[in-house]
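[step 3/7] fold_predict: job queued, chain A
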Amino acid sequence: MEIDVKELRLKSEEYYRSGAFYCSEAILKTLKDGFNAPFSDDIIKLSSGFPVGMGNGCTCGAMNGGVMAIGMMFGRDEPHAPEVKKAMKLAKELQLEFTKKRKSCCCKILTKGLIKGLPQQVNQCIELTGELTEMTARILARELGYKIIN
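[step 4/7] structure written:
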């Protein structure tokens, strides 16, 4: 099994750029399809409340999308199931990697000084969406045994 993480990044960026999906939705859709997760597109609805930092600038919606993708692949669906530990460990890894690079995962801080809807803000959010798609895809690939080809 091989996966092209750069291609996934470009796909999620295009979803955002075209207006098809916002950050969290674009990431979840891209990674669901890219890793052939056994869920319908109805799962994308779960991520629709997370863009723009849950609508008020809290945690970056793209970060939320990455964490949901990790949960999609490694989360639990039964009470007391131990899978939650792995999902939480991988979510922490993603959050630490992103904040090491960006210094924050708060939407308000990441977009400080930018006006919502103007090109500078949109372009930054496209970049963050792609970046978090790629970071998450690398974690998923490693954990699922995929060879990264790009």
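[step 5/7] annotate
Residues 2-148 form one domain.
Strands lie at 2-3, 147-148.
exit 0
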